[in-house]
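Input protein
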Amino acid sequence: MNGDRLELTDLPEIRDLLFRTQAIRLRAAGWSMYPTLWPGDRLTAELVGPAQLQVGDLLLIHHRGRVICHRLISMQATGGEPRLLTKGDGQNGCGDVTHADQVLGRIVAVGPRWPWARRIRWAGAPAMRFVHARERLMLRIAQGLQDLQGRRGYRWIIRTIFLPGFEFYFGVSEGQRWLQYQRIGNGKPPERLDDRRRFHFMAKLAGMWVGSVRLTPIREGYRIDDLYVRIRYRGVGVGSKLLALTATAASRSEPAVLLASVEAANTVALDVFTKAGFRQTPARDGHAVCLRRDLHGRAGGS
């Protein structure tokens, strides 16, 4: 984790590291805590319980699919667990309501990336403008790359070049925590799915989380939950590889069936599942299309 810039990140792995080591180090991204924190500042987070929280603490929080660092500005007792109000130092408004189970840890140390810049009053504003300009430029580049994806042969070339650089990991659930992550070698999960637990497959590039999928046991076989690939890494085969790994794993269990549901409007995801061997079923889950793949005890294709 040292040196990782966290955006959409592997929340279970952060929890595991905190439970095992009691402390992790990571770098801040964004300006919501300016001027207290600048992008690139190195943060040390430690495990903390609800009873240990105090107003003024900097908390590492799971908020709407992202990991953020905000300040605890008030606490209210509401029955069994406290009601927390958190807010970035650089933000306006009243703050956000945070539940205790969203708190991953408490920031106990900050290492400034540019300590000399803190002594110059005007340095923050141009630095912020530079970062925002860079983000706009990166967005335009990403939009241009997305336009290229529609060209014939583009995806095949990109997958051939980039997919071997991704690393894939396999995690086994235990209660509400993910434990024992192992890197997958030779394209196969390291153990059988015969104990009816939840399983988690994760893709990383240069140590950074880029996508994941969760496999949940049900009576009919296994259900695919929360397949997600970060936008900038779509189109290079990460999602297809994750689906192939779930098929390989589920084919070792009985019944060897994979189920999934996809919003009908999400035609790109439907195409990915169809190419992975899934077929639509007559059942409906609200506005979602229900999908099924019978594996017949054989490993799924890539």
Observations:
- The two ends are 30 Å apart (CA to CA).
- Helices lie at 11-21, 124-148, 154-162, 238-250, 267-275.
- The longest strand covers residues 66-78.
